[in-house]
Amino acid sequence: MGVPSHTVENGSVLVDSGQSRLRELGYKQELKRDLSVFSNFAFSFSIISVLTGITTLYNTGLTFGGPISLVYGWFIAGGFTMFVGLSMAEICSSYPTSGGLYYWSARLAGRNWAPFASWFTGWFNIVGQWAVTTSVDFSLAQLIQVIILLSTGGKNGGGYEASKYVVIAFHGAILSMHAIINSLPISVLSFFGQLAAVWNLLGVVLLMILIPSVATERASAKFVFTHFNTDNGEGINSKVYIFVLGLLMSQYTLTGYDASAHMTEETKNADKNGPKGIISAIGISIIFGWGYLLGITFAVTDIPYLLSEDNDAGGYAIAEIFYLAFKNRYGSGVGGIICLGVIAIAIFFCGMSSVTSNSRMVYAFSRDGAMPLSSLWHKVNKQEVPINAVWLSAFISFCMALTSLGSLVAFQAMVSIATIGLYIAYALPIFFRVSLGRKSFVPGPFNLGRYGVVVGWIAVLWVATISVLFSLPVAYPVTSETLNYTPVAVGGLLFITVSWWIVSARHWFTGPITNI
Predict the structure, then answer these.
(1) Distance CA 351, CA 488 (A)
(2) What is the pTM of this model?
(3) Would you say 23 and 243 are in contact if contact means Cβ atoms under 8 Å apart?
(4) Phi, then psi, of 288 in degrees rounded to 5
(5) Nearest by Cα to 267 from 444, 98, 382
(6) What whole-number distance in Å separates Cα of residue 290 and Cα of residue 54?
(7) Is 13 in a helix, a strand, or coil?
(8) What digits encode the pLDDT tens for the residues 31-40?
(9) Which H/E stretch holds residue 9?
(10) Which end of the chain offers a freer environment for a tag, N or C, measured as fewer CB atoms within 10 Å?
């Protein structure tokens, strides 16, 4: 079976290879194709955003295993994530469409299974993406709360502690700003995306050098590379179990790189540049993320105090590290608060890019008729932006965060879909590629050759493993407050998706619909 044409010459005009491949797949070019390979990379890199993920979940890594979980767990999660990314990149090269994962599943599962495979993958992908946006913007709202607390004297100095209603108001305001930015033309959005990537890179380099340099007390290399924290206060004593729970920080951070696939209909030569975006975003994030982890961990000297809710940052470990580093050296924590501002801007960019990726998935999924009111969500405006999809994504992410008003346990369950739900969506097309579609898959310009099947199986097995591991209890004894609701949330999504299919969707959803 021959490799499909990826470069088309029309008279003397060279047609973009991604656009010609999109036409071969049966789709019109409706979005403006204006993104360079760096812009495509920038969207995925700023969604992975090591400053966002590591800062947000550093407490988890510090609690479960401490330095060893942070320093070595990062490479374990990063290595296996690269296998997932390589497999996705290979499929992306052959099918460079905004639909990404669900379209790939449809093409690789075979004619009989295509509609259900597409439906199932699509809903896990889209809900997982909404959960990512929810968690990213909510974590920014929480960081703003901590910045205000420290700026007004800290918890021990009478600082202002925002209520959960103020935090949700921050969250709504942040989402609104992201929706407004995403309503702008793709050329403007591309600029913001590139700025986000540069900000993340420079921010990591600045903080990994500055914080340990300013800190008056630093951890020894022995502590950073060999200390294992078993004092988690959660009733868990098994070192293997503790280490596994500590991996969550790394795996949560290394998500969202499917953005490069969702942006392919707006990327030049997407059959080549989409895969480059995925792989480079993961690879560079692994390297810079490890540097950031090392820099911060060298400033850790008292783990129980950093995790204590009685410190000035209210138990937000990285905020307390930054604040103390400057306060102990200069008598004022203002420098630490400014450093937290650098992270806050990185998280803002992360949420912005996440809404971009969400909206392209909504656009593609509704174009194929999979969503209620599909005709409304896939409309594009005069600037060739799917504006209705943008505002829908922002609205749903706000609604998902409202669960935090009732219970943080319920909110954490919602957010768990961001890691497990999204990775299940990543694994499904890879599974179909190495099983049902093994013989029919036609590789694009980027391919793994004879290693494609082996890499694919490693990726699928890793996702299956983390799906089980991250569903385990995180505290003993298990009560309604300590129960890990991840399997409940993911199981609920599974039940709704399959039930909807059986009752209704199987009668009208036939998978991706070509529009040429």
Answers:
(1) 26
(2) 0.89
(3) no
(4) -70, -35
(5) 98
(6) 10
(7) strand
(8) 778 788 888 8
(9) strand 8-10
(10) N
SS3 15: strand
Q: What is the C-alpha separation between 495 and 123, in angstroms, rounded?
A: 12
Evaluated on CA atoms 318, 324, 329, 330, the torsion sign reads positive
Helix (H, G, I), strand (E, B) or coil at 310: coil
State the Rg of the chain over Cα: 22
Question: What is the crossing angle of helices 422-434 and 67-94, to 10°?
Answer: 50
Q: What pLDDT sits at residue 14?
A: 61
Look at residues 39, 58, 41, 49 and name the one whose alpha carbon lies nearest to residue 299: 58
Amino acid identity at 472: L
CATH pick for 33-507 out of 3.30.420.310, 1.10.760.10, 1.20.1740.10, 3.40.50.10320: 1.20.1740.10
**Residue at token pair 């950073």:** 224
Could you tell me the two tokens for 218? 């630093």
**pLDDT tens figures, 312-324:** 999 999 999 999 9
3-state secondary structure of 369: coil
Cross-strand bridge partners of residue 43: none
CA 99/CA 361 separation, integer angstroms: 6
**Structure confidence at residue 513 (pLDDT):** 78
Q: Which two tokens stand for residue 404?
A: 């935090």
DSSP 3-state assignment of 5?
coil
pLDDT confidence of residue 4: 41
Residue from 50, 55, 57, 49 nearest 474 by CA: 57
If we measure between CA atoms, which residue out of 130, 162, 348 comes closest to residue 256?
Answer: 130
In 3-state terms, what secondary structure has residue 22?
A: helix
